[in-house]
Amino acid sequence: QVQLVESGGGLVQAGGSLRLSCVASVRTFSSYAMGWFRQAPGEEREFVVHISKWNGVSTYYADSVKGRFTISRDNAKNTAYLQMNNLKAEDTGVYYCAAGGGPIPRIGATYDYWGQGTQVTVSS
């Protein structure tokens, strides 16, 4: 089993920054691709960003966050990060960390494990 725990969410003003962390309880963290998804109230879950397994040479970003968000991973710490800059009110939602052995980057159903989520609220 793989357990994922997100942290770093909170309340921030528009234009501010926030850094989310996702710690995985697994011995083979580097063998998993990692992704972040979010869900706003009354909306379906949407893709945010993905980083490939191993050294994370490939990344994918939703158009809505491109240029503002950055995903990274530290395999020595079993952690994936989501750096969010220039936050907007529409970024508000519950952010979920996901891990998969071979997921299709933008499709949540192809990931194998999910965290509990962390709330991000951006005030305008």
Briefly summarize what is shown:
With 124 residues, this protein is mainly β. The strands form two sheets. Strands 2, 4, 5, 6, 9, 10 and 11 form a seven-stranded mixed β-sheet that branches. It is 0% helix and 49% strand.
How would you explain this protein's 3D organization?
By secondary structure, this protein is mainly β. The protein is 0% helix and 49% strand. The strands form two sheets. Strands 2, 4, 5, 6, 9, 10 and 11 form a seven-stranded mixed β-sheet that branches. Strands 1-3-8-7 form a four-stranded antiparallel β-sheet, with no helix packed on it. A hairpin with a 6-residue loop joins strand 4 and strand 5 (46-51). The chain is globular, with a radius of gyration of 13 Å. The relative contact order is 0.31. The mean pLDDT is 97.
Strand content: over 45%
Spans of at least 5 consecutive residues with low confidence: none
Overall 3D shape: globular
The overall pLDDT, averaged over residues, is: 97
Distance between the termini: 40 Å
Structural class: mainly beta
> Could you state the oligomeric state of the chains shown?
single chain
| Biggest beta sheet attributes | 7 strands, mixed
Q: What integer value in Å does the Rg equal?
A: 13 Å
Tally of alpha and pi helices: 0
Strand tally:
11
Order of helices and strands: EEEEEEEEEEE
Fraction of residues in helices? under 10%
